[in-house]
Amino acid sequence: MRIEPLPPLQNLIAFEATVRHGSFTRAATELHLTQSAISRQVAQLEDFLGRALFRREHKRIHLTVAGQIYAEEVHRILTQCAEATAQVITHSGEQQLTLACSSGVAALWLGPLLGRYKDEFPAVDIRLRVVDGLDSLIRAEFDLALYFLRDQPPPGLDGRLLFAESVNAYCSPDYLGGQLLEPAQLLDHCLLMLEDGQRQWLSWSDWFGRQGVDASLIRQRMTVNLYPVLVDLAIAGHGIVLGWHPMIDRHVDSGALVPACNADIGAIGGYHLLTPGAKIPRRTARAFEKWLINEIAQ
Asked: What is the rounded distance in angstroms from the CA atom of residue 235 to the CA atom of residue 198?
C-alpha cells in the first residue's frame, strides 16, 4: 500500500531547520541554500498542507499552533530516519572507531592526538565527524564525542568530565609587545569573538562580567563562527582572543600566542567525553577512552 500523503522531503528538511534555528537565514546557512530558497520551500510545504505553519511579523517568524504540533513530529521522524540511515552506512567492524567533536576541538587539540593514537593502534579504522553543536549530532553515527559543556550532558548521552576549563585572553607576542594588561584595558583593543558557539563557551561578555568590567564598552570587535579561525587571526596579530586550556596550549607552548592579561577565569564548565546512552560501546571505543585518559594524565 502506498504511503500518502507525503510532502517533498526537501520541504520537510527546510521546515525543520527553520524551526530549530528560528530563522530562514540561519537555516539557509546550515543547508547551503539561499534564504529565498528556504522561504520558498517552507511556503510550498504550507501550500501542500493547506495551512500556515509560521506567522511572519516584522521580519520575525513564529510558529502557529499547527506549526508547533507539526514541527515536533517532523523533527522526531527526521531524527529517526537519520539514525536508521547512520546505522546502515556506519561500519560495524570491531576495528572501527567513529569520533565526533566541534571544529575547535578537532583543529586545536584532538587532531594531533589522533596522530599519536594511530601510531600506537595502526589497525584501527578512525572516522572523525566534525559537528559544531550537539543539537546537530545524531547519536547513532558516533562511538565517542568530545564537547565543551557548561552543565550535565543532554538527554540520551552519558558523559565523563575530562578536564575543567580555564580561560584567559591571548594575542601574538608582537601585538602588545610583551605587556600584560588589566581586564579593563582590553576594551581599547580589537577583540576576536566567537558567534553562536558562545551559547556554551564563555563569551567576552561573560569574561568581562566576572572581572567587574562593563562589556558594553567594547570598542572594536571581529566576529567569526569558527573558533580555529579566531585563533589564526590572533596569531597573525589582528586582535585578542579568549583561549581555553588545553585547546590553546599548543600555540602557547610554541610561543605563537602569549597571555594578554593575567586574569584566568574557570569553573563554569569543562570538556566531556560523551557516549550514546543506549549504545553498547565497541571494544575500540573502550580502548580509546582508556588511552585518552592516560594521555591527559601525562
From this structure: 21
The three grid cell numbers given for residue 283, joined into one nine-digit string = 571494544
Question: Of the candidates 74, 89, 104, which is a domain's last residue?
Answer: 89
Phi, psi of 150 (to 5 degrees): -80, -35
Question: Each residue of 168-196: pLDDT tens digit?
Answer: 899 999 999 988 999 999 999 999 998 75
Burial environment of residue 214 by CB neighbours within 10 A (0 to 12, 13 to 18, 19 or more): exposed
Enter the pTM of the model.
0.62
DSSP state of 261: B
152 and 184 housed in the same domain: yes
Q: Give the mean pLDDT of the chain.
A: 87
Domain-embedded: residue 81: yes
DSSP 280: P
Range of the domain at 65: 9-89
Structural domains of the chain, count: 2
Give CA separation, 286 vs 4, 96, 102, 169, in Å. 44, 12, 21, 36
Long-range contacts of 9-15 (CB under 8 A, 24+ apart): 10/41, 11/41, 11/42, 11/44, 11/45, 11/48, 12/45, 12/74, 12/78, 13/78, 14/38, 14/41, 14/42, 14/45, 15/41, 15/42, 15/45, 15/53, 15/70, 15/71, 15/74
Q: At 202, give phi and psi (nearest 5°).
A: -65, 125
Which pLDDT tens digit goes with each residue over 147-164?
888 778 888 888 898 888
Domain of residue 40, CATH code: 1.10.10.10
* Regions of the chain with pLDDT less than 70: 86-94, 196-201, 266-267, 278-279
Same domain, 98 and 206: yes
On whether residue 1 sits in a domain, the answer given is: no
CA dist 292 and 160 (Å) reads 12
- CATH assignment of the domain containing 214: 3.40.190.290
